[in-house]
Amino acid sequence: MYTLKKTASTTKARLGELKTAHGTIETPIFMPVGTLGTVKGVSQDTLADQIKAQIILGNTYHLYLRPGCDIIKEAGGLHKFMKWDLPILTDSGGYQIFSLSDNRELDEEGAHFQSHIDGSRHTFTPENVVETQRILGSDIMMLLDECPPYPSSYDYAKNSMELTHRWAKRGRKAFLEMKPLYGHEQAQFGIVQGGTYKDLRIESSKFMADQDFEGIAIGGLSVGEPIDMMYEFTDLNTDYLPKEKARYLMGVGTPANLLEGVARGVDMFDCVMPTRNARNGTIFTRNGRVNIRNAQWKEHHDYLDPDFPSDLCSKYTMAYIHHLIRNNEIFGMVLASIHNLTFYLWLMEEVRKRIADDTFGEWYPGMVERLENRI
Amino acid sequence: MYTLKKTASTTKARLGELKTAHGTIETPIFMPVGTLGTVKGVSQDTLADQIKAQIILGNTYHLYLRPGCDIIKEAGGLHKFMKWDLPILTDSGGYQIFSLSDNRELDEEGAHFQSHIDGSRHTFTPENVVETQRILGSDIMMLLDECPPYPSSYDYAKNSMELTHRWAKRGRKAFLEMKPLYGHEQAQFGIVQGGTYKDLRIESSKFMADQDFEGIAIGGLSVGEPIDMMYEFTDLNTDYLPKEKARYLMGVGTPANLLEGVARGVDMFDCVMPTRNARNGTIFTRNGRVNIRNAQWKEHHDYLDPDFPSDLCSKYTMAYIHHLIRNNEIFGMVLASIHNLTFYLWLMEEVRKRIADDTFGEWYPGMVERLENRI
């Protein structure tokens, strides 16, 4: 599924291609998150044509609860339901069960939880999340895992990792036994866990490397640990992951985090940050981060970045955007969401160019510094 | 400013053109409401290119409070602030003072009120609303009036109307004395009041007809009175309004209301209904009104109206739109807002065609019936 095209000479950055049933993705790539079958505030046309998203994410936990599997199955899968013809990756719901549901319990069988919507009771097992993702029809599905909180004791992290490994075997078996529903192939990614313990992280990387998953995700990071620790473990994990498979760092992150992840050999990223922060007025630019709600922008009748191809940057003034966001106008949230995603995808395109001409290693530290500015 | 091109043979419907500094408007027309310098949920590009809005509304009361006159003046007027090159009409704020502000008092000088945002105290006078609208730079500005509540006693309605008439003279004087700020001409419309009393309505129509306003609005209707009473007074008012000036029925209404208004000689309409109701899931179509939140749409995997040119009707299924709106997804609100406005503007285009070929009189009663269906 993954083809490694080039490795940078001074970092672990990789240029590659990921073939899916709905098209080929150039990596490194950022995947906008479309929790409920919509990337919040952005139309599918804008995502494809303007933002140039190559793949988006859907959340199994959320889609399972709303609209529910019956509706998506009747529609012929998530692609048809939401009219999105490019690749989709779905998570397994594991992370949401632990972060959203009020009342959850874990045992060997799976995760038992109460819906955060109506309190109804459900169980996700390694097998039925495969079944659900067959119904969703995503191009890439994820295993059910347990994401241990940070910090976790060594014993907790070890037991949790071992459970995730046993679930991985069950999930893969189910994947091989259950056929796709809509005539297109799906891939399945394993997920490395192990908390913040080196030996566990190495053990989990090796374990996942030994299975026949089509790609491997690095899970359990970006959950509250210090940023250097996230970089350290990402670096450690990719050392033990096979070169011929795509690596996906789940739930990461800021633009600077993406560059640091790429430098450590990551190919795929997803995060709600560009859209969630947009709605609150945080704008990511190539010169740093802007809080458009700040009073300094109230009378700023200029453009934020006249050469950047987004309406927020080069069509409307900062004073206008400030006014929209301060007044919670939908159009302000939409402009900011489109901009932030356009910026994330632009950044990844820059990254790919820099790896291709082998200037990534010298370019990215300065770029990280710029990206971390507060304007 | 207004050119009457044709009058229907069996109704009072009129086909006309309204020339403004930012372009010529074909009438009858519906004006989308852009309260705070944005038509809620819709981009300016979509408004112009897809919805085919010819003129939009801005609210003086809201823009005066947020972002404030200083900001708009620095930007060079509302057109430049919001990047909208087509005509803009601004109301005077009179209606909002009475419907929104917590604490208001009226005297001969003007309307004293507390901001609904921060409780600060302000006064609108017939003169200073002209000044504010010179700053906004709208193509058409409105007089300050008092909109009496329904029901009002005869004495209240009479005194209120007489005050509105005295304010009209002061407002016109101010308009003639204060020059435009940005090099383009602005027009000023008078507003007929008189509550729900025939003699007052006639008196107010005659009074406004005798002034030299560029157009005349029918105010004080659609404020809670029975619908037949609104039609009756609209009909009465237009009998006394000059044929050579545009007539604008303020704050109206449903698609059926628009047709009934056109039949009674109205040229211009505005209302928040298409966007406000869209956000709650009410969709207007040529076959009637749909509440997309209803459970009947949950598993309806078909299009609402495959031949109607909006994404809501012909790109996404009802089940998907239902899912978006039920989950308060921004994209659902955006799709519904764009659709409803596209529908309103489409309807007015149909109206103009029907007046042009003189089939309006036979067509509109059946269409009103269809539009009032609940699907």
UniProtKB/TrEMBL annotation, chains A, B:
Active-site residues, as the UniProt record annotates them: D91 (proton acceptor), D270 (nucleophile)
Transmembrane regions: none
InterPro entries: ArchSynthase1/Queuine_TRR, TGT, TGT-like_sf, tRNA_ribo_trans-like
Biological processes per GO annotation: tRNA queuosine(34) biosynthetic process
Binding site for substrate: D91, S92, G93, G94, Y95, D145, Q193, G220
Record key words, sorted: Glycosyltransferase, Queuosine biosynthesis, Transferase, tRNA processing
GO molecular function annotations of the record: tRNA-guanosine(34) queuine transglycosylase activity
Domain annotation tRNA-guanine(15) transglycosylase-like: ranges: 11-369
Entry's EC annotation: 2.4.2.29
GO cellular component terms, A-Z: cytosol
Pathway: tRNA modification; tRNA-queuosine biosynthesis
Catalytic activity: 7-aminomethyl-7-carbaguanine + guanosine(34) in tRNA = 7-aminomethyl-7-carbaguanosine(34) in tRNA + guanine
UniProt keyword annotation of Manganese present: no
Record's subunit section: Homodimer. Within each dimer, one monomer is responsible for RNA recognition and catalysis, while the other monomer binds to the replacement base PreQ1.
Protein role: Catalyzes the base-exchange of a guanine (G) residue with the queuine precursor 7-aminomethyl-7-deazaguanine (PreQ1) at position 34 (anticodon wobble position) in tRNAs with GU(N) anticodons (tRNA-Asp, -Asn, -His and -Tyr). Catalysis occurs through a double-displacement mechanism. The nucleophile active site attacks the C1' of nucleotide 34 to detach the guanine base from the RNA, forming a covalent enzyme-RNA intermediate. The proton acceptor active site deprotonates the incoming PreQ1, allowing a nucleophilic attack on the C1' of the ribose to form the product.
Recorded family membership: Belongs to the queuine tRNA-ribosyltransferase family.
Protein name according to UniProt: Queuine tRNA-ribosyltransferase
Species of the source: Gracilimonas sediminicola
